[in-house]
Amino acid sequence: MFTKKIIPILFTMSIVGFAPAVFAESEKTPTTAPAVEKPGPTNTGPSDTTKLKDITGMTITEDDTVIENVRISGTVTIKANNVTIRNFILDAKNGHYGIQASAGNTGGKFEHGEIINFNSAAIFGTGFTATALNIHESGGDGVKIQGKGGPTIVEKCWIHHIGKNEGAHADGNQSIGVDNVIFRYNFFDLPITAPEPYKQNACFILQDKNSPVTNFTIENNWLNGGGWCMYFPKNSETIHVKNNKFGKDFRFGIMSGRPGSFEGNTWEDTGEPVDPGTTRKNMK
Question: Rounded to an integer, what is the distance from CA 48 to the centroid of its chain?
């Protein structure tokens, strides 16, 4: 279950309301993205549940730690570089986070896992690549990509059934003052028509309360739901939204605020280009 630099030995770890955007932007012809299967129940989550062994949550302080084939009860806190967690189920047991990676580390890899029963976010922090995760049953948001750390990539994940807490305004991702982030090939499955207790606010909300959001790319995703599907801060020059497929299960419209670029985005049901100024009232 635990290895150091992929060597199969055991070692000791320490346990410790925005206004809608109105702007004229040319609709560019969608480009063809690589064929990637839409994330869902058959291609996210653990790759082999028969191998899973029960362990408890922990704090990882050793660089190059690998944890695999596990069923984790509780939160995993990462304070090391190049930590890999793969083929896993993590039940946060209503802890604040499933994985907390907010210590400024880099090189994390979280692959083929399911994260459930967290109170705020499945993953909080930066400096990792998350691949093929099934994220659901959140009291609050899906993920919170926030803080200082290395590049962050979230790809091929399925985020759904979030916002169970009373009064929740759940976001698929909430980012405040972050740099160098890519979301690609994910399915944000957050229809505003979801039954109680799930409450959806947005697929993305990006904010610059303490520092700007820079070099943030949202590409080749399936985005459905929220009040406004996406919220952007005033200074969004290096936020780019491209080649995504949009659903129509939102309450107000596609976006509040304006990204630096919006191109190649289409409606999933028709394949027609998406007007970034689309609202529920003007939608055809």
Answer: 23
Q: What is the DSSP string of 168-229?
A: --EEEEEEES-EEEEEES-EEEE-TTPPTT--EEEEEEEE-SSS--EEEEEES-EEEESSEE
* Cβ–Cβ under 8 Å, residues 83 and 107: yes
Question: How does pLDDT run across 21-71, given as a tens digit for each residue?
Answer: 333 343 444 455 557 999 999 999 999 999 999 999 999 999 999 999 999
Give DSSP secondary structure letters for 186-198: -EEEE-TTPPTT-
Write down the pLDDT at residue 284.
67
Encoding tokens for residue 45?
Answer: 């989550």
Q: Which residue in the block uniquely carries the two structure tokens 């995504």?
A: 244
Residue of higher predicted confidence among 124 and 6: 124
Sorted by sequence, the CB contacts under 8 Å of residue 38 that are 6+ apart come out as 187, 222
Rounded Cα distance, 263 and 25, in Å: 9
Say how far apart CA 167 and CA 277 lie, in whole Å: 28
Cα–chain center distance at 215: 16
